[in-house]
Request: fold
Amino acid sequence: MNVIILLDQVESLLEACPKVPLTGKVMVNSDELLDLLDQIRGALPEEVKRAEWIAQEKERLLRDTQEEAARMIKQAEDYARKLLEENGLVAEARAEAQKILKEAQVRAKEITGGAADYADRVLADLAGHLEHTLKVVAKGREELARKFKVAGDSGEPK
Reply:
């Protein structure tokens, strides 16, 4: 039985007891009072156990809630850190890509410039060879013309 109900019954018993005039005391049926007190003693351990269980359950729930909150905070921090790292990696990758692109553009200009220089040297060499060949051809023609002019005068080649 609930301790509160039993205490209410003790109070009702005391209020119902006859009062001794001019003393403020009451005459109590001791058997009834002792019976109620025995019931209270029997109910108290159960009530105390229930109160202890409730207190322990409250502590467990509080601890579980705090652990869950700590776990959620850690997850959020880990996720935020991951996002920052990914964002940092993306920024690093973009910066590296820009660097590689600029290096490739510089290298392409160097190669293009080198190719143009090489082509110019080859063409200059070719022009030199052609000039030399043209001079040889011109000299050969002159030689031919001179031989045939001289031969044309006498009729025979020299």
